[in-house]
Amino acid sequence: MTSINTKNDLDALKKRIQAWSASLGFQQTGISNVDLGAAEDRLHAWLAKHYHGEMAYMERHGLKRSRPDMLVPGTLRVISVRMDYFPDEQQRAKDLLDHPRKAYVSRYALGRDYHKLMRKRLQKLARLIEDDIGDFGYRVFVDSAPVLEKPLAEKSGLGWIGKHTNVINRQAGSWFFLGELYTDLPLAEDVAESSHCGSCRACIDVCPTAAIVAPYELDARRCISYLTIEMKGSIPEDLRKPIGNRVYGCDDCQLFCPWNKFAKPTAEGDFAPRHSLDDADMAALFRWDEATWLSNTEGSAIRRIGFEQWLRNLAVGLGNAETSTAVIEALQSRRDHGSALVREHVNWALQQHNVL
């Protein structure tokens, strides 16, 4: 059992936890209590507007998402961590937006899937604590259960939730992943961060599909990340042109956020781009067969959408591309694809090039 009994013991432990966390590659660690009452109200209001679209999992689990001690009984504190992931200089990413030939893949998905990497690191952190104080109650989360990670990050001082609904840090921008360690240790809480967006509306104005319907309010049904990743069926026709060349996710709201002038490229080698997905030709990607796609997306977050959805997204991107022989031939090669979903989007894309 744990040997932590006094405030001095807990304060010393907190410092060790922060040092261990840094040694494991996390850029920041913060601690919060489990009171998410305000966030719970915002979640229910968001769900009532049906802004979650097909993401039915956002409605499941009752109050466990906003009440950590219901999800993991005995939880007193949440240790939140962040890990930077941006792979390179931001201008290179901006130059790819709406490129006439090349695909844009959200920067978070260019390298190894962060879920397993961060979960393993958080498990190591838990074992270090256990080795130090003995058994204690905990559970690790990395976007893997009903957890309100952004409000928890804000409460723990890692940053504030910006108008685009991503977490922003004054010293590091917003290009980072979040993870949590729910624990029964009564550690000292950090000071919650407050908003520093001010009157800025860069993210609102730049959103290609006008998904940020009000400051701090996102209609996911219009968000390109939702349309290309979460949505499984046909992409609404009125949103296909605004998607441009964004074939997996979207980063516009982050690329044009002034706070990201402070962001630094990650030193985490596993987040480096694989298979040149940071500079890939859309027609070439569209010609991958399923075996090639499975091989090239092994260990990648992209794998979760499946090959059919990948082709759907690329068909939209090719429909928005500059007309060329390579683009037309790539699309025509899938015109008789076995998936009705793929065929629909291929035919739409060919129509954009006046090929009937």
Automatic annotation (TrEMBL):
Keywords per UniProt: 4Fe-4S, Cobalamin, Cobalt, Cytoplasm, Iron, Iron-sulfur, Metal-binding, Oxidoreductase, Queuosine biosynthesis, tRNA processing
GO MF assignments: 4 iron, 4 sulfur cluster binding; cobalamin binding; epoxyqueuosine reductase activity; metal ion binding
Binding site for cob(II)alamin: 65, 143, 167, 178, 225, 250-251
Keyword hit for Metal-binding: yes
Pathway the protein acts in: tRNA modification; tRNA-queuosine biosynthesis
Role according to the record: Catalyzes the conversion of epoxyqueuosine (oQ) to queuosine (Q), which is a hypermodified base found in the wobble positions of tRNA(Asp), tRNA(Asn), tRNA(His) and tRNA(Tyr).
Protein name: Epoxyqueuosine reductase
Organism in which the protein naturally occurs: Woeseia oceani
Record lineage: Bacteria, Pseudomonadati, Pseudomonadota, Gammaproteobacteria, Woeseiales
Gene: queG
